[in-house]
Design a protein that fits this description.
Helix content: 10-25%
Distance between the termini: 26 Å
CATH class of the largest domain: Alpha Beta
CATH superfamily of the largest domain: 2,3-Dihydroxybiphenyl 1,2-Dioxygenase, domain 1
Strand content: 25-35%
Structural class: alpha+beta
Number of domains: 2
Largest sheet: 5 strands, mixed
Length: about 140
């Protein structure tokens, strides 16, 4: 069966800082699709974050590029296999130079926390009880 992929393209101020940040979260950089102007971050087999210098990002749009530290256009959400994995990833993100974003969401069957990366993009990390998903 075909597995559809998502390539999330985000503008960043410093590609090297972004590479270091996401590497510290445990993600790999695919050198085949990375240059001085961008980093290809492999989050999973089907999720890729393309971190583009603001100049390179501008090559793909005629729209104004927002400053994610002051404006929000997208909230990125990643699933986690447990509550502990939610905490582990968010804590690593904060230790690597990110910042906590929002309050912890604990509804029993669903648990989530968020962080902002060094460029202000908000990443949510959520665990949901498989039994609750099945109904």
């Amino acid at each position: 069966m075909y597995q559809q992929m998502i390539f999330v393209n985000l503008p960043v101020s410093d590609v090297d800082v972004s590479k270091k940040f996401f590497t510290e979260l445990g993600y790999a950089i695919n050198p085949q699709f990375s240059t001085d102007d961008n980093a290809c971050v492999v989050i999973s087999e089907t999720i890729i974050a393309m971190l583009l210098s603001r100049q390179r990002y501008a090559d793909f749009t005629k729209k104004e590029i927002v400053d994610a530290t002051t404006s929000s256009e997208v909230l990125l959400c990643l699933s986690a296999e447990s509550r502990e994995k939610v905490d582990e990833l968010v804590d690593r993100a904060i230790a690597a130079g990110g910042s906590a974003a929002g309050e912890t969401q604990d509804q029993g069957f669903m648990y989530g926390r968020s962080f902002d990366d060094p460029d202000g993009h908000t990443w949510e990390v959520v665990w949901m009880d498989p039994a609750a998903v099945q109904g």
